[in-house]
Amino acid sequence: MYTDSIPAGFPSPATDYEEDELDLNEFLIKHPAASYFLRVSGDSMRDAGILASDIIVVDRSLRPISGDIIVGALNGEFTVKTLLRKNGQLILHPENSEYQDILIGSEEDFTVFGVVTGVVRKTGRMAERERLKHGRFS
Amino acid sequence: MVGLVDCNSFYASCERVFRPDLRNRPIAVLSNNDGCIVAMSSEAKSLGIRRGTPYFQVKADLAAVNAAVFSSNYTLYQSLSNRVMRILSENCEGVEEYSIDEAFITASLTGKQLKAFAAELRSIICRDTGIPVSIGFGRTKTLAKTANKWAKKAADGDGVCILKEEMEEAVLRKIRAVDIWGIGPRKGRFLLQHGIVSAWDLRQAPSSWVKKHLTVVTLRTVWELQGFPSIDAEVPDEPKKGILSSRGFSRTVSDIESLREAAASYTAQAVDKLMRQQSTAGSITVFIQTRRHAEEKLYRNSITFAVDPPSSYLPDLTKLAVQGIESLYRKGYAYAKVGVFLNDIDIWHGKQRSLFEDDNKTQQRKHRAAETAMDIRERYGKGGLYCLQTGMGREWQMKQDLLSPKYTTSWEDIPLVL
């Protein structure tokens, strides 16, 4: 309301060069109406840098292609995996050698919820606080 | 042409977006206080349960088909509605939000191009939000509504209907007059008594007869069916006639403190709405009642105070509401409901209303205080600032035992993924 009222002194020479501060929402989200946050449980995507209790950004407007990290709904549960298509076979590939590939057969109830476009994680003490709050995810 | 985009079984569809396990399960959503069924998925509708049925009457039927039952999660519904509306405004020439799950849109396309546009819009909304919609286009809003209904009915089920002028007669002959937007059961019965059965009959009804026996609103409906746009965009600035804030309690209360708190809290909600439309109230009515069909003693009563000069100042209105409760309260009853009704609403002009200069200054100051309070409530949420009368225990707050998480608006509630 008072941005234009300068009671004394000289106006800032930078006024005309002012730009908006950086916004993480803008950086992470290309399609706001189609993007959702989900929280990761488990470490099946560890080697792709997605850890337990991370928040992932999921964009539903993108068409998934082989090699994308996606969130799928498999038999009524959300799962985050790398989607692969090999010789017509759909595969949900975990990025952790302790887990096995899931082959999507015709008997499976499977749809893609969206494509994962980003990961958000706090570090150090902030992460500790997050872990305490969400202990059930690690 | 005008299009109507309508979300299918909106509340039930919202409950399904983050629950893939509910894909084919029947879903029912309950009203405030978990009293009645307000929305159902198509699977639940096919059981023959009607909207408005008390939950306890159909609880067993729903359980028998393994239905998922939810309290109304308006936070979630509004969030997903905003997303749908945003997609519409990004893709359409004009958008008029009509309700939480419906919007009128305009398109200058015709023929195959319009059909293709509608089909693509529909798939974009479903893909981006997870909410299925139906789209109907017609020459007027009423015809667009009709087309939308037709799109839902059609067996091929592509969810899109373009009601071209040359198709109107065939479609309107197959739709009952009572099912036309703005008619409703009472007018429908009257029309039926006078031999007007189908929407086509209504379209052919003489204007003079309609105007004489029904209202000018119905006459507009007839014109709209004839293809003449007669329903304008709603004027958003028009203040509401009266603002009601009232709800039943989850369990009855007998002590005056709880009633005071409830009345103060409902006053705050009503004043919130009042402020949002920048208006003042000239009167406030408070009412209390016991349960309607109970074995206990019945009592209901109300009291109205003039607010002079008209005001939107929460502390003053709260004082009146609490005063109302104190004069209405009788010992020994189990109260089930309290309500606050603000009436004689006028737009706040900030102009002089009192001959006494001091009064005017007080009024201005109170209005500023009210606006500041609004800002605080907007920034810090509704719990950010309240009058002390509102209390903090909220023992009487509404019953929502089956509430789903706020998946899109609360960090604590975002969906889990393995």
Radius of gyration of chain A (Å): 21 Å
Please count the helical segments of chain A: 2
Shape of chain B: globular
Helix content of chain A: 10-25%
Order of helices and strands of chain A: HEEEEEEEH
H/E element order of chain B: EHEEHHEHEEHEHEHHHHHEHEEHEEHE
Q: Number of DSSP strands of chain B?
A: 14
Q: Enumerate the strands of the largest sheet of chain A in spatial order, edge to edge or round the barrel.
A: 1-2-7-3-4-5-6
Oligomeric organization of the protein chains: heterodimer
Q: Count of DSSP E strands of chain A?
A: 7
Tally of separate helices of chain B: 14
Low-confidence stretches of chain B: 351-356, 391-395
- Main β sheet profile of chain B: 5 strands, mixed
Compute the separation of the termini of chain A in Å.
47 Å
Mean pLDDT rating of chain A = 89
Largest interface: A-B, 28 and 21 residues
Largest sheet, strands/sense/barrel of chain A: 7 strands, antiparallel
Query: What percentage of residues of chain B falls in helices of 4 or more residues?
Result: 40-55%
Share in β-strands of chain A: 25-35%
Would you kindly provide a written description of the structure presented here, covering whatever features stand out?
The complex is a heterodimer of chains A (138) and B (418). Chain A has 138 residues and is mainly β. Chain A has helices spanning 24-28, 124-133; strands at residues 35-40, 55-59, 69-74, 77-86, 89-93, 102-103, 110-120. Helices cover 11% and strands 33% of the residues of chain A. The termini of chain A are far apart. Chain B is α+β, with helices and mostly antiparallel strands and 418 residues long. Chain B is built from 14 helices and 14 strands. Chain B has helices at residues 10-17, 42-45, 55-64, 74-91, 111-129, 141-153, 168-174, 184-193, 199-204, 207-213, 216-225, 256-276, 314-328, 357-380; strands spanning 2-7, 27-30, 37-40, 68-71, 94-99, 102-106, 133-138, 160-162, 243-253, 279-290, 300-311, 335-343, 346-347, 416-417. In chain B, strand 2 and strand 3 (37-40) form a beta hairpin. The chains are: A mainly beta (138), B alpha+beta (418).
